[in-house]
Amino acid sequence: MNVITNNKWIGQRTIRPDGVDKVTGRAAFAADTTMPGMIWGKILRSPHPHARIKSIDTSKALALPGVKAVVTARDIVDFPVDKSVMLGIQDMRWMCRNVMAREKALFPGHPVAAVAATTEAIAAKACELIEVDYEVLPWAIEIDDALKADAPILHEFNKFEGKPSNIAGKLEVKKGDIAQGFKEAEVVIERTFTTRPVHQGYIEPHACLISVAADNKTTIWSSSQGQFMVRAMTSYLTGIPQSDIRAIPAEIGGGFGGKTIVYLEPLATLLAKKSGRPVKMVMTREEVMRATGPTSGSKSTVKIGAKKDGTIVAAQGTFYLQAGALPGSPIRGAVGCSFSPYDIPNVLSVGYDVLSNRSKVAAYRAPGAPIGAFAVECVMDELASALKMDPLELRLKNAARQGTKAAHGPVFPRIGYVETLEAAKAHPHYAAPLGKLQGRGVASGFWFNAGGESSAQVNITEDGNVVVTTGHPDIGGSRAAIANVCAELLGIDYRRVSVLIGDTATVGFSNLTGGSRVLFASAMVVTQSTEKVITTLRERAAKIWEIDPEAVKWENGAAHPASPNAGQFEPLTLAELAAKAPQMGGPIGAGVQLNTEGAEGGFGTHICDVEVDVELGIVRVIRYTAVQDVGRAVHPGYVEGQMQGGVAQGIGWALNEEYIYNRDGKVDNPGFLDYRMPVCSDLPMLDTVMVQVPNPKHPQGVKGVGEVPLVPVMAAVANAVHNALGKRFYSLPMSPPKVLATLEAEG
Amino acid sequence: MTDIRYLSPSTLDEAVSAFAAAGSAARILAGGTDLLVQMRAGSVRPGLIVDIKKISEMTAIEETADGGFRVGAAVPGAVLAEHPRFGKVWPGVLEAVNLIGSTQVQGRASAGGNLCNSSPAADSVPAMIAAGAIVTVAGPNGRREMPVEAVPAGPGRTHLKPGEILVSFTLPPRPPGSGDAYLRMIPRTEMDIAVVGCGVSLTLKGGVCTTARVGLGAVAPTVLLVEAAAKALVGSKLDDAALSAAASACSAACRPIDDKRGTIAYRTKIAGVLLKRTAAIAAQRAGGN
Amino acid sequence: MAKLHVSTTINGEPMEFLCEPNDTMLDALRGPLGLTGSKEGCASGDCGACSILLDDRLVCSCLMLSAEAQGHEIRTIEGMAHGEKLHPLQQKFLEMAALQCGICTSGMLVASDALLKKNPQPSEEEVRFWLAGNLCRCTGYDKIVRAVLETAQDMREARN
């Protein structure tokens, strides 16, 4: 293992390789590209929350001058419901029904048909001309409604305990003997919590531009969290072989998990194939809000029992998560992550995947984990109060450490959770005085993190510089961190390293930008590739010097003769070796493709201060400190950025973000005006403390950092509100009408 | 290709005749911050857009001979904020106009558009009502004046007659000891539509409130002039009892709805809270004059 | 109806384009003018990603008809750097990691530039309220606000 000390570039706040393009407006995002002959695609969407599609007549649309193609579910490859076909965590049975309603329209906004025409206006007009005969069905939006005995069933084929049901799945993790554990408990707290679905809120709407030649050779230009996912899903849903599809990753304007599945690409591909013209599709913000994402709404019951000395002996959680209209809510994150910060002998954690007539959920930053943590960390706060313990002390007493067996399975290696608690406790924020109607809360969080497939190619250019190509869309500065890693290993200035994101034809398979895996996995393959390059460079120098390659060392960007030849030859720099490459064996470069392993889970502990306007019910976050074990901060600026971004999203989730439904079962706030994400003036500075406990299984010590920072936030805010008001909020968001109503109801 | 026409006349007469001739499909464009959103959403499909910003009267800010102000209907909030005197005399009206949308929206949105869009939650309207502003409208039959509170007819509807265009707001001169203020409740700190908005203008003499006007937004189909609240303030020293009475009058005047922005109970309750806070700021300003 | 012909000035250069009467300035910039640095995040004036300067005043180009550009001066993100030399705000955003995905960055920079021209010494609160119409979902705004404040200080010092 190449453990680097005395780093020159790792840990530096270098300028990102794609930075100048992004501050000058040059960077090409998905909607920024055009092609000659390009036409426009638009989607006709269901106005109904639940309706059987009896027929679709597209003849009038097709007759409209300018219309070049129409597609419906008939054009999409059908995956019968009785046989699962998995791609990663996505089941193509559900994906084919999500991109285009098949038997039934399952939520308002569900695509029913798509049109391509010479202008956007004609395409929109053509959508109006498509006649759909719907049989409108009763619908259920909320969990409780979907679980009623007489609830409308979304999918008759879906059975739970032998009967048609809206429960699409159950996941259970167990450790020890839960009944015995609670018998031993002297203090038990049990509470029920609800959270609302929240959208990932990326500012860039989904967009793509696709060309299909007569021989099916397909070029996809789109914004996603994985060009290989786009290729594979488009292939599955259109029947075009993956080898005929080239998916080019545009710059991505935010994803947060929401761009780990396709919406537009299969439709645009089929429209392009039918019309013979490149097709561009761009969602409106309203379409994004109605038909993409969000993460689940939830209903959770958490029960924790402890001895009087604060030792937790048993913990139980039941988590109902909304899947939306097709199965697949992130119960694994809720069930698996919620109790992981603690060493608890007896755990039972159960999750249910609940169908309802709203858009199918997509991943959102530590999917499921923030929902579980909101419940668990609020109960921990109550438990600390009941035990008259400091909440950080209670966590320290029960903290997971090296050797702790988590309920979801793994035995933790060296982890930094305790360090986050100690850093939080020692932070001046934790002891700072509070004013009137102000309160402070703490909470912790865990996320699995992920490894998986990653590929890289490191090539030395003829002029002695470096081009690194990886396969993960750069969503928050990963190219900068990769440049740091490569420059460090080669001992050259980071500005000599170009980092590019390859398309599916130019770089090896690389899994999604997701699971907090990008730098963990790509630094691993870039390290191995660069080490191969260095081996080649040493061999070349050895050849020139006519000595044994083992007697050549690589330092500061040059080959040096090592003892016993030290000092006999002048060092050969990277540029010199590159110049001699044609004569000395040819191009210098190396690629590595790996299924990376060893991504260890991440922990964070947050401190939040709020101030409450008790007359108006407004909660404002006035100070926030996020402490996280980040493994190794290869580029501290972007690590802090991940932490701050996660916190801001969590504050939105806690206070104001929610989908508001009208009586017709439609979202009433499908835009940024009334879907209230935090704006700049809503937030204070977001302080970060990076605890660095390097991951022993990674060459640079990298751990995933992107998802953990969302996990603790809602509980930290709720605990702070309790500290300010003496009232507990068990339901998110803590919006002004709700806060005021609670204050008044309880006097 | 669309069948929309765009005109940007340089005189009011041209604007009125084009606007009147085009009938109900015509829309006036000032800042466009409502109109373009409505067009994009498909809720408005105008046949004619009349851009009034080239008409000098529409974009002028003048101090009247008696010490009042005349503000053109299309003056953007950011321009009004840069006027050397307006904000000193009518700080409440200015802060209300400057709460319409973001900095970007401020660069375009006007009090005239805010009034004619006729949202019950329009920020500038309660303050204009409190200020006792009079609007001038011009139509095929000439000019007429009406109090601001007489303009809105309901959400999205005004009492302007066919072909009439809002030209300007006239704000009266301020006696010594006067102050005004506007506060709104929004869930965030910016970028939201008012859940309740409250404008108060008052005059104090020897610590006693001699005149007062209260405008209340987002609690009824139109922005309200709450005379009962004003009555509770006049004659008092704005003591707790008077403020509570005025607050109760505001809550009593509320005829709100439950919607995505607030509940009936919440709006009714905070209307009173806002009245107290707004009156306190107006009084402080009056005391400073 | 025929398209409208518009003559305007964009980033100091005289420009002409054709548009439909209901096209927005953002449509014109991203379409016929080929200036895709201004982004469409909402098309309703709620995200600020399409921010431009119209006669030096900050506006959302999605809330302006392109026909209104006739005879006016427009500045976009593409005109912010002087040739190869980045504007101090652009440089500071890079140095301080004040962008992650970059989709809001054009609008943030145009809006921040407008602020510093109007108020060379803004407080944190003034920066936050000025930028409230520019949504960023990645950064939590912390590094953006710090970058604007630091640039303001650098620019003041450079002038003195």
Features:
heterotrimer; A: 747 residues; alpha+beta; Aldehyde Oxidoreductase, domain 4; Aldehyde Oxidoreductase, domain 3; seven-stranded mixed sheet; five-stranded mixed sheet; 20 helices; 28% helix; 25% strand; C: 160 residues; Ubiquitin-like (UB roll); DNA polymerase, domain 1; 2 domains
What does this structure look like?
The complex is a heterotrimer of chains A (747), B (289) and C (160). By secondary structure, chain A is α+β, with helices and mostly antiparallel strands. Chain A contains 20 helices and 30 strands. Chain A has a seven-stranded mixed beta sheet, with helices on both faces. In chain A, strands 11-19-18-17-12 form a five-stranded mixed beta sheet, with helices on both faces. In chain A, strands 20-28-29-30 form a four-stranded mixed beta sheet, with helices on both faces. Chain A is globular. Chain B has two domains: 5-119 and 134-171, Uridine Diphospho-n-acetylenolpyruvylglucosamine Reductase, domain 3 (2-Layer Sandwich), CATH 3.30.465; 178-288, Enolase-like, domain 1 (2-Layer Sandwich), CATH 3.30.390. Helix content of chain B is 35%, strand content 25%. In chain B, helix 5 (91-97) runs antiparallel to helix 8, helix 9 runs antiparallel to helix 10 (240-253) and helix 10 packs across helix 11. The mean pLDDT of chain B is 96. By secondary structure, chain C is α+β, with helices and mostly antiparallel strands. Helices cover 33% and strands 16% of the residues of chain C. Chain C has helices at residues 25-30, 88-95, 105-118, 124-130, 142-159, and strands at residues 4-10, 13-19, 51-54, 57-60, 73-75. In chain C, helix 2 (88-95) crosses helix 5.
